[in-house]
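Dear H.,

Thanks for agreeing to be a second pair of eyes. The structure we're designing against is below in token form, covering all 63 positions.
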């Protein structure tokens, strides 16, 4: 039962999300991962999302 409820919860969560795949060289990933660990505890996804949000904010101000 717990597995079924977890599957349903995951499906509901993912229904409201979009997925973006990134391809990069291992060296680039290592650099980003190291920066993410210094800044927010290691989440590469969080680090990338924060960088995107900051850039969008700068671009909005420039317009």
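And this is the sequence the design step returned. I haven't edited it by hand at all.
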């Amino acid at each position: 039962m717990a597995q079924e409820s977890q599957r349903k919860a995951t499906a509901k969560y993912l229904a409201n999300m979009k997925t973006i795949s990134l391809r990069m060289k291992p060296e680039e990933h290592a650099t980003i991962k190291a920066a993410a660990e210094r800044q927010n505890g290691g989440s590469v996804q969080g680090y990338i999302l924060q960088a995107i949000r900051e850039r969008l904010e700068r671009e909005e101000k420039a317009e």
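Two observations from my side: Residues 34 and 52 are 18 Å apart (CA to CA). Residues 22-63 form one domain.

Warmly,
E.
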